[in-house]
Amino acid sequence: MKKMNIPISELLLERHGVDISKYDAGFLNKSIQKRKIETLCDSDNSYFDLVRQDKSESKHFISSLSVSYSEFFRNSLSFSVLEKIIIPSIMLDRVRIKRKEIRIWSAACAAGQETYSLAILLKEFSQAIGEKINFRIFATDQSELQIKEAKAGIYTESTLNNVTLRRHKNWFSKIGDNYKINEDLKENIDFSVFDLLSDYHTSPPSSIFGEFDLVICANLLFYYQPAFRSKIINKASHCLSSNGFILTSETEREFLLSAGFQEVYPQSAIFK
Ligand SMILES: C[S@@+](CC[C@H](N)C(=O)[O-])C[C@H]1O[C@@H](n2cnc3c(N)ncnc32)[C@H](O)[C@@H]1O
Q1: Best substitution site from 20, 140, 141 to test ligand 1's pocket, by max atoms within 8 Å of Cβ?
Q2: To 10 degrees, what angle do helices 25-38 and 44-53 make?
Q3: How far is the C-alpha of 142 from the C-alpha of 124, rounded, in Å?
Q4: Domains plus CATH for the chain?
Q5: How wide is the angle at C-alpha 74 spanned by C-alphas 70 and 78, nearest 5°?
Q6: Residue nearest to atom 24 of ligand 1 (CA)
Q7: pLDDT tens for residues 59-86?
């Protein structure tokens, strides 16, 4: 009987060790409404009863909170500012001072779409100016499954909607109905599992000391309560180099603006 009345948040913590109180209330509510419809429950209470009684549904609900949707060159305005201004300025600076590699952190990389898009921009600029410029992208996600998929680098056609024909041809090969990223793009990328809310590490352990020229932290802040958003923004910004940039998504700009960051170009979602 006690289990029948236990609040869902307590039940999920006790049963699966997952604390859903960190998630944004609107996002939680949307996820509940979606599962309610999918399980044919006619009220929130009847859905909560189902979650209490059926462990597989509580598991399903928790998985529904891990949204991993991504695309190549998502947020077209930000990517075009990266391509035309930010990456050339970082790379030309390195050529000028003949010093150290460019370091980038793709902090919630999902299945690697964002990370490989960046690697394409860096390689293309390097080719365009005829200089080999070293770069390393540390690509992390809290989900082991996403990191596994990112390492495999195989994508459906719809993920590649924003990829130009020229890039299709240069950077992908067709495997059945899918597309595989070229192996040489992987040379400069280090994929690993990393939870941005972890209290133990300030940056991916494989990066050793952070000091990133660019951190991308996009399309995940809006899932969290303000205190957890701030924790992620602080973590991402504390390991920037002194001239480093932080990029979020066009719909998350406000979070950084209200935390006092300066947007380098209006609406670009790229900040100092
Ligand atoms: C919607 S996807 C966005 C992927 C990509 N950044 C983009 O903009 O397309 C959100 C990703 O954030 C990851 N994520 C959510 N919370 C995280 C956390 N606390 N630490 C690391 N990754 C997290 C999820 O696993 C998921 O892959």
Answers
A1: 141
A2: 80
A3: 29
A4: 2-64 (no CATH), 76-271 (3.40.50.150)
A5: 140
A6: 68
A7: 999 999 999 999 999 999 999 999 999 9
